Amino acid sequence: MTHTARRIGRSLALVLPVVLVLSGTLAVTMVPWADTSSSQILTASAEGVSAPAKPRAAHEVLRDRLVGDLQQGQAPDDVLTHLQQEVNRRPSLAEHCVGIARALGRAAVDVYGPTKAQSYARPVCDTSYATGVASMG
Question: How many CA atoms lie within 13 A of 50 on its CB side?
Fold first, then answer.
């Protein structure tokens, strides 16, 4: 995937939810132009509403928090230290460590570029961070 296509995809990922929310809001608001004698209100049907979303898994929450920390300017070595501390504190996260470290490597490339991101590589969860960097570089 090219850089331009990735940028377009990210833009759509940010804009599309806003458009959907606004169009949904408009669908359930008062539309006074529909009938001049009395105002008409359209509401969404509650039929077929799916079950509430399941809570996110702990490893997904951790991954998103650490990637967010990195994107907000926290140094990758600090973020990797936090990942290692969380895995040590909660051994059940160990099976997800590789995926989280790869996601951190990819996010570091977006923030720092491949060369600088690679300079932060260290053996957290084996070499997964470096693999994430390499996949983006």
Answer: 3
CA–CA dist 122, 80 (Å, integer): 8
Nearest to 129 by CA among 84, 93, 71: 84
Place of tokens 């105002």: 39
Residue 40, helix vs strand vs coil: strand
CA dist., res. 97 & res. 74, Å (int): 19
Alpha carbon 29 to its chain's center: 30
pLDDT by residue (tens digit) across 24-80?
A: 555 555 555 555 454 444 455 555 556 666 788 889 999 999 999 999 999 998 999
Q: By three-state DSSP, how is residue 36 classified? A: coil
Pairing mode of beta strands 40-41, 30-31: antiparallel
Q: Enumerate residues 6+ apart whose C-beta is below 8 A from 1.
A: 9
pTM above 0.90, yes or no: no
Query: What are the start-end ranges of the E strands in 70-117?
Result: none
* Residue with token string 């920390």: 69
Q: Which two structure tokens, joined as six digits, stand for 88? A: 């040590």
